[in-house]
């Protein structure tokens, strides 16, 4: 099983791998996979390859995207990282044998932030800023996501990675944080599944718990799935509990009208 390469821009990072089950002849739901690594250049879409295999083995298409990241040669951050995620999803409009009404974003760690952001920004991105609606996202999944950028910055998560991504602190760039942080964008208006290991020492599970409580208070369909004894990288273990929980919930989603 080999992926198809999809290029959505001229920069070397503007690429994605599309995986389909062998012998597929029908339009399939698509899981857009967004890797983590605190948005930093050394971390790539290779992190999500094993997740892609789980997705395809279950009979869905996996779309594992790369994006410009922060670092000396990454050329990412605000707004390039966000533009790339949006453009990568838009590129699905030209892909055959997928169901464009069954697109779900799924991200780990920093990718969880981008997955939820993409779920809301597709239809509501302000003019002149990243975010379009060529492809609508039906639901968003966050695996140990950095879902509240302001809180993450103040906690110092990633050793200042949030500030590097956004070009400043929440006090210096309040509009950027309000626009980019999933917590600030609530309600998103789509189902959201937030899975978080309670033994996570990289991104505290309290971020996901607080996010879901707020999302529900604002009328969103959001679910928090805490996993006792599970750490940060175990969230993308193909044999782990996190992916079993996600697959079970997406089965229900795709079987509903």
CATH topology: Rossmann fold
What is the CA–CA distance across the termini?
A: 30 Å
- Give me the number of helical elements: 9
Largest sheet: 8 strands, mixed
Query: What general outline do the C-alpha atoms trace?
Result: globular
The secondary-structure class comes to: alpha/beta
Indicate the CATH class: Alpha Beta
Strand order of the largest sheet: 1-2-4-3-5-6-7-8
* Count of the domains: 1
Portion of residues in helices? Answer: 25-40%
Stretches where pLDDT falls below 50 for ≥5 residues? 123-131
List how many beta strands DSSP finds: 8
Q: What series of H and E elements makes up the topology?
A: EEEHEHEHEHHHHEHEH
List strands and helices in order, with pairings.
Blueprint: E1 4-7, E2 15-19, E3 28-34, H1 49-57, E4 61-65, H2 80-90, E5 98-108, H3 110-124, E6 139-143, H4 149-155, H5 161-166, H6 174-180, H7 182-185, E7 192-197, H8 205-217, E8 222-227, H9 241-255
Parallel strand pairs: 3-4, 3-5, 5-6, 6-7, 7-8
Antiparallel strand pairs: 1-2, 2-4
